[in-house]
Amino acid sequence: xxxxxxxxxxxxxxxxxxSGQDLGQTEAVKDSVPVDEKYRxxxxxxxxxxxxxxxxxxxVKIRGFSGGARFGFVRDMPINAQxxxxxxxxxxxxxNRYGNTLSIAEDANDQLVxxxxxxxxxxxxxxxxxxxxxxxxxxxxxxxxxxEFKFYRVHTGVIFSYAYWNRATFVQDGTRFTFDNLxxxxxxxxxxxxxxGYNTINFxxxxxxxxxxxxxxxxxxxxxxxxxxxxxxxxxxL
Length: 238
What we know:
The chain is mostly beta strands. It contains 1 helix and 13 strands. The strands form 3 sheets. It has an 8-stranded antiparallel β-barrel. Strands 4-5 form a two-stranded antiparallel sheet. Strands 11-12 form a two-stranded antiparallel sheet.
């Protein structure tokens, strides 16, 4: 009986010794992993937005799909020793569509022909679409550390963009009318944005401070100065 107890005790001591050795080796391996003290948050981004229109003529409303998507890459440039503050500079592509009740057409002299579609006007679709390249310039704050990969972030800045293609589309009684690259559309756009988030998911808001059309675009002598407000979600990934 005593021999059996001694045998079991030896087994337990041996097991504890092996476990302690394995734990020590694991901690040693963990401690040996290099920590990047000069890390950057270089990231790809993908965002989806719901687009609202502000500064529209009276009685112009959203109707139909009005949203957008953007995708690109941002280079992260830390500006403090803790690397919690950084400047971000990027490049990407974007698409935005604005469904509304303002009919946009063009005459033979490349002048806009604008008309508000009232409730008595039957039509299937009326939208304005824009494709653009964009350059975001950001001031970035985050609660990250060299070993913490999930953290809070606040980004703000300006997104400069150039619209390389735009189209106004009106569909009525199965007939489609399209007008591409409107002459009075301002292709150079700029918008201020604010982003708040944690880890991968971030809430995003942006406001255009550049009008869509030039000063000659008018509806009943009233300037048409569309300025979109975009609300959505932005995802960052490596």
